[in-house]
What we know:
Elements: E1 2-10, E2 13-19, E3 23-27, H1 34-49, H2 52-58, H3 62-65, E4 76-84, E5 87-98, E6 101-114, E7 123-132, E8 135-140, E9 151-152, H4 159-164, H5 170-174, H6 176-183, E10 185-188, H7 192-196, E11 199-200, H8 214-220, H9 227-237, E12 244-252, E13 255-263, E14 269-273, H10 279-292, E15 299-303, H11 314-325, E16 333-338, H12 341-344, E17 352-358, E18 361-366, H13 369-376, H14 382-388
Parallel strand pairs: 3-16, 3-17, 10-15, 15-16
Antiparallel strand pairs: 1-2, 1-4, 4-5, 5-6, 6-7, 7-8, 8-9, 11-13, 12-13, 13-14, 17-18
Amino acid sequence: MINFAVISHYKSVSEAKLSFGKENVIVGPNGVGKSNIVDALYFLRDAAREDLDYAVTKRHGIESVRQWSRTRSYNIGLELQFSSRSGSGNYKVSISSARGSFKVEEEYGEWTGKLELFGEDKIHSRSFSRTGEGRVKVISNFERINFPDQFPVGSSELFVSQISNKSASIASLFFSDLAEEITSFAAYAIYPNTIRTPQSVSNEDMLADSGSNLASIIKRMTSHSRRKNRESLVESLRAVLPIIDNIEIRSAGGFYVPVFRVKEPNGDLHDLNMSQISDGTLRMLGLLSAFYQPNAPLKIALEEPEQMIHPGLLPVLVDAARDYSLSSDRDNQLFLTTHSPNLLDLFDADDIIRAQFKDGVTVCGPILHRQKDLISRSLFSAGEIMIAEGFFDQ
């Protein structure tokens, strides 16, 4: 779980120091940079899971990633602190840029926790840092392995990418917990047209960001070990469509097609195909599936989940999100961006992170103590405060 983050010169965010909990709701008007806060975290996920060039290119080049300035070429800085049941650690990176190219100026990572190698189950500390151009030094108090003096890494590459992709040999084992904290993250943007279209058969074990493999994920819920996931999904959907009995996946021309099996009041069963289902119901299907998928990532982000969904159904979505984030056997974490007062009222004041656009940059942080006090005393709800005066830094 990400406990704390420092974001510097990333898109519209000049400097932000943020504490995070299990549930994090970033609220603010349109265009203030709410999504840039989450994307800074997701940028690291893309860079570690794929590579830095992929993460930059996906966001239209380094000039679109770095904070704009007429006179200065800022270094992008990202620093995250993590904790989990297996240990704790942090990761820091600084990236410079010039004339469309970029270079890693600093990279440091550390993890303290159990290292189950050679039958041992002790607490060990290990860290890595760039020592110069193209070199990374690994330090560990685990005495039974001698690391190479230095690991080679390109000037525009991240060592954490090598760890994540297991190309750094033994170092990948030593920092697997850190790599998982960075990469086990999904930011979902699921919309009806993606679900309505017949989907290619996929062997991916996690729901794609766009929901393009949703049918394959639901089909996997038919196994005995995953039946509870499907039951939870169908039960939540009954709040939207009370006559739903099950979700079935059919094959058609080499594609998967989801079908709603519904039961009429007289007991008759029949099918509804995706063209017969409303946009809001399909979006709920996609978002609920993100939370109830069998192999859900440790972190899930949703941007404005209230879109297309009736305000009265938002508690259903939040209940599913809470089933995920408050899981008893995993350190899951939820990130939402919103400007919905109805959604905001379903979370605690301590979960709210305000975002505003001030002097040309995104400013963010916890809401004012005065506003928290009003909410805790039930004098106003968070949604009422947002509508009446908004959330600001003073």
